[in-house]
Amino acid sequence: xxxxxxxxxxxxxxxxxxxxxxxxxxxxxxxxxxxxxxxxxxxxxxxxxxxxxxxxxxxxxxxxxxxxxxxxxxxxxxxxxxxxxxxxxxxxxxxxxxxxxxxxxxxxxxxxxxxxxxxxxxxxxxxxxxxxxxxxxxxxxxxxxxxxxxxxxxxxxxxxxxxxxxxxxxxxxxxxxxxxxxxxxxxxxxxxxxxxxxxxxxxxxxxxxxxxxxxxxxxxxxxxxxxxxxxxxxxxxxxxxxxxxxxxxxxxxxxxxxxxxxxxxxxxxxxxxxxxxxxxxxxxxxxxxxxxxxxxxxxxxxxxxxxxxxxxxxxxxxxxxxxxxxxxxxxxxxxxxxxxxxxxxxxxxxxxxxxxxxxxxxxxxxxxxxxxxxxxxxxxxxxxxxxxxxxxxxxxxxxxxxxxxxxxxxxxxxxxxxxxxxxxxxxxxxxxxxxxxxxxxxxxxxxxxxxxxxxxxxxxxxxxxxxxxxxxxxxxxxxxxxxxxxxxxxxxxxxxxxxxxxxxxxxxxxxxxxxxxxxxxxxxxx
Length: 526
Description:
alpha/beta, Rossmann fold, 8-stranded mixed β-sheet, 3-stranded parallel β-sheet, about 15% strand, globular, Methyltranfer_dom, Methyltransferase domain-containing protein
């Protein structure tokens, strides 16, 4: 709740701001040359059963304010019962004006709370808010039962997600984050120079981390949360907990899988519904639905449990209706903490592609420990034999035996080392295969040609190609779509000697598309 602050209170706040300048004015730009529109609000927060507190908070336009998302997130945090928080270290990602970090310190009396935000102005306002709540009306420190003040328990630092904790080797017991989900990422936003005097608009965009994060989850607006989870895995203690809020527009399955495939088990602490802002453009979600079988989840108004797709929600909004989406608060903990942390510690040095593509979700818990132990052993082998696994022509025999044994033991695929080839990357595997076969014509999935030699993709000598003299080590490559019916038509018309393709996700559910492609290649002798 908020109400007007008395003149005396504003004067008291001004006295406290002088104390703040003493704290944050060293080695950084002060706020004295910046014109700021600000407001002072009072939040009435529930700390527990029949216990509440008031926080006095300063807000400015260029940082996040506690809208429905962050208040719902705080309610979710209240569902997490932790009776041993006094000796624990917390970090809040995207702390904004700092109110959640301060509220956690008030509620839990932890050893330390690190409030982290990439917006430099947010950190200064958060320090101001810390002083506004750590000092009394006379500007003197307020001590708790342990003889400590909020100034002892809370710190704020400029940080891209968890970079401050990673750089300073700070291990955390709990990581919390009310992190934005970006539907239309702007890859150029982060590349600009960050300065204290940046415009309000730019700093607000910066707070949203408007950039693709390089994860599968980017297409659902979850890329930033995915990166936070992966960074958190490195600094969280083995029995530590991460708590994040996630808007349910991508669907509960996608949201939960974000954690499961990264080696966590999850529990839902809290769920509510949030109204979708009427001016929000969800056309990007409609487009994703049109190009994949994935439906997003919206609800008509705040009632009912039956979800509707993004396309239906868009039509309903354009007709004057209101739609909402779920907002869930998830708690996640590493499933096999020692093994998972060891696995990614091994892979972080030179094996980033493997690290980001691993799926550590297990349908059967009884074999999870055994599988994890095997993956750690496999990663250790890779690290110790970096030049060895990819030795010509098909890779290290011992490594191929390990992979074959894994496929046979856990997936019932009767394979031997002869069925396994090891290359440093898929791109290298494709290029080596094409050089080995040296076809007059190859057709290659357009998603797989990015790293092929440019001269292979620019030749137009298709007519009479069998008779033309090709340059040494040159393969004529035609890029083709992944959709099977179009691919088959091109195979029948062009009659290539080699076909390299992936499978569209919607066609990989059954074997029918693959069988049809194999039939077409057999007919033309590919």
